UniProtKB/TrEMBL annotation, chains A, B, C, D:
InterPro entries: HotDog_dom_sf, PAAI_dom, Thioestr_dom. It comes from the Bacteria. It comes from Corynebacterium wankanglinii. The keyword RNA-binding does not apply. Belongs to the thioesterase PaaI family. Gene3D superfamilies: Hotdog Thioesterase. This is PaaI family thioesterase. Pfam families: 4HBT. GO terms for cellular component: cytosol.
């Protein structure tokens, strides 16, 4: 896969943090679901990831606010990348628990920060807080299993 | 909102089930996140919803399988519609717990069925099972609060 | 540990179901948290477990109904035993998601049934429904990791 | 109920924090599930609660470590009290999501801290971190609904 060839990701622990060129490489990949949605990675290191997504009409649910699934996807994607960045190996999500705490409207930007809760040899737990306009909108807790390479 | 004007949804309990014309109306709406992803509603009644999504390249994560967030979105969207279909009022998701149990590849179709676990006056709990090729791939438990109109 | 010496549990897949003598053996063990709470195992096979607990004053929270943690414990305990019964190996809980759906008062009996959602080589997901007086009171989804012996 | 008569809890927001006499009053109540288990409240204010439980034989599961349900109960109980302390009204738990991250043995003390994630008019989300010997053992996320008095 092209992404894996070009990047430290999946090959080593991300320390020091990704350069802007590395972030641009990930953000320009076309095949990934996160990119389909417009999620941009803005910071990536072994102990913290950050990303953002500006809500457009295509992210809305019928009542005019962002579909709750948007937060789940942001949390899933950032936490999955975070686990890989922290251990240098592939990791698969086992469960995604997302609390939906506020609503976000078209034009607002959701800023997300992923931090580790538990980084073990076989499993990880990452917590992703998502805010817009200074208000907490959602929190994802993603549990992952590290795959032996 | 156009969707609300054209449909029984948000106005009454969906009994009898939606006609094919009503399903087509929802599936052709352009502003909704679910439609952005290619999720089609195939059955909608007050006590069961069904939908499907065929996995394309744009749904994948870097390792070549569907991004776990895809299941969360399907679960969130079907369960939210299901709650509205069951009570005839708007409902907002409060928490989305999705177990990720299997992987699905490009070209496979995810079939999802939403059934009620608890339908109360103020809160609902819906469970959405998602399968592909006869194997269970994910289960979402969505808790919602009913909004008084 | 005495329990492990006397029982098929932890040594083999429980098929056929436990005899009444085997259930009595488990229910009379003194060191286990479940027994401390008064939880009785009433059926145990590789694909289903059942148990019950009669709510007493010591299970209540200050407002006079059973503490929500009681359901979490029942779910945790039955699902953990169920995973062991299904695979014949030790298994440890990784996450416990319990929806609290109704209240139960002193003197009522909570009946619980554990069924498998996903039984894989490395992880299990079990779902435990708990009812009292015919009403659903809570549901636990317990995710476990199988330990290699 | 005696507890409600003697305490600010359930009647007002707990600010300033409880005195030692108020904590002793709660810890000596006999009818509560938390007290049955030996959970002691050590700090209680509107924006933070702390408690501790020393693991005894009666808290163990068959493999000799604390039953995972013990953490769920600690999280449920502290977060429920915390919600009441923060709003001065009764609140009922709607869902308890507990990640089980480490094991604790007989004689070790679990220290728990509850902090608010979201305190709304109708719903709260509290997060309870539980540690023993400096290691994180479990985290509970409890969602509650505030009851109008």
């Amino acid at each position: 896969m092209k992404l894996e060839k070009n990047l430290r990701l999946y090959q080593e622990v991300i320390d020091p943090p990704m350069t802007q060129a590395e972030l641009d490489n990930i953000n320009s990949a076309q095949f990934d679901f996160a990119q389909t949605l417009g999620l941009k990675l803005t910071y990536c290191a072994k102990d913290r990831l950050e990303g953002e997504l500006t809500v457009e009409q295509r992210h809305l649910q019928p009542t005019g606010i962002a579909n709750g699934g948007v937060y789940c996807v942001i949390g899933e994607t950032l936490a999955s990348l975070a686990a890989v960045a922290a251990c240098g190996k592939p990791a698969v999500g086992m469960s995604n628990y997302t609390d939906l705490l506020g609503s976000v409207r078209e034009g607002e930007t959701i800023r997300a920060v992923a931090k580790p809760v538990h980084v073990g040899k076989r499993t990880h737990l990452w917590r992703v807080e998502m805010s817009a306009g200074g208000r907490l909108a959602a929190v994802t807790n993603l549990k992952l299993m590290v795959m032996d390479s």
